[in-house]
Amino acid sequence: MSELLDYHLALNDLVETHQPLAGEEEVPLDQLVQRVLARDVQVQYDVPAFDNSSMDGYAINGNSLDRWQVVQRIAAGDEASQALQPGQAARIFTGAPIPAGTTAVLMQESVQVSADAAFIQRDPSHAQDAVPEGLNIRRKAEELQKGHTLLAKHTCITPAAVGLLSAQGYTHAPCVPQVRVTVFSSGNELVEPGQPLQAGKIYDSNREMLMAMLRAEGFEVINGGILPDRLDATRQALEQAAKESHAIICSGGVSVGEEDHLKNALEQVGELTQWRLLIKPGKPFTWGRIGDCRVFMLPGNPVSSLVTFRLLALPALNRMAGLEDAQARPWKLPARADFSRSKVDSRREFLRVVLTAGPDGLRVKPMQQQGSNMLSGAAFATALAEIPPNTSVEEGMALAVYPLGQRF
Fold this sequence. Notes:
The protein is α/β, with parallel strands linked by helices. It contains eight helices and 26 strands. It has four domains: 7-22 and 177-328, 3-Layer(aba) Sandwich (Molybdenum Cofactor Biosythetic Enzyme, Chain A); 28-47 and 143-175, Molybdopterin biosynthesis moea protein, domain 2 (Alpha-Beta Complex); 52-138, Molybdopterin biosynthesis moea protein, domain 3 (Molybdopterin biosynthesis moeA protein, domain 3); 333-407, MoeA, C-terminal, domain IV (Beta-clip). The protein has helices at residues 7-17, 159-167, 206-216, 231-244, 262-269, 302-321, 325-328, 375-379; strands spanning 25-28, 41-42, 52-53, 57-60, 67-74, 88-92, 104-107, 111-113, 119-122, 137-138, 149-151, 172-175, 180-186, 190-191, 202-203, 220-227, 247-251, 271-275, 279-280, 286-290, 293-298, 333-337, 348-358, 361-366, 383-387, 398-403. It is elongated.
């Protein structure tokens, strides 16, 4: 029997022993969000591509003058074919190329225009000794330079990154292959939502919850269904899923009961790496492999399943998806307890909490429903607060918190 690990030792082991999938695939822009780059992507075009105006106003030649003759008009998309001579100006709009000879751009609010629009002069209320050289001019390549790195390997693509790639003319990007995950629930007591609920049965909540979290994180999901409490059927299902998936996630059937067959099935068809941790909730959490397919077995209690997925299985899957070590780990923030608790536990505990902003930073209040079977407490929580082993909580005590998904 493997030794019960502390959470941080287990997390380190998972992150260090799971590596990005080999190879790469070209992914179109409309499917890139949450995908991870397999290699660097380069800047193809200077940004800006030419010197241009950052304001609606007037390009001028002669920063020490007070009056200029307007000789041309340049809108975004036009060419600036005529150079400005000293004392000349051009009506110009944001993003338009500045003509040769331009020494600055005056925004339209800082000038007065003659009745025939042939001349401009500085508004006395905006006058100063001289107009600063290069005022309101965006210089070519001041943001991005051709040949430099646009997005680095291991970058997780956000909507803004999709826009950046699009602005560089890319239609696809090279990504780590998408991790394909089969999700099972286990237990004869489980019933599919929508089916009649008979005596002694409960609806299966874990599988839909886990699949929703996986999809939100950018993984490809296969619905494996409900495994019966039979060793032969469990073993066959795991073997088949391992042929079709990069990872398997199961909930339930991993404790010490006579009807808990997942651990035994994994040992028969693959390799069990770790069974049980010193955490609350989530002690039965288990992981291993079947060939190249990684296997994560989560407790059946819904909150235990949620906590161990987010804090343990997800970091390992993030590594497989291509994220680097630090990126793959759960996001952790400092906060202070807005409560006190004398009760202590020998295990590291993760309370479901709500975060609020206070004058001294984030504050933590626990949900009333803290039972590992009480999903209602987790559904409205915004974070998990870490309570070290054998530690009571005092008001104002510093705590580490782990935000829960996009709600935070």
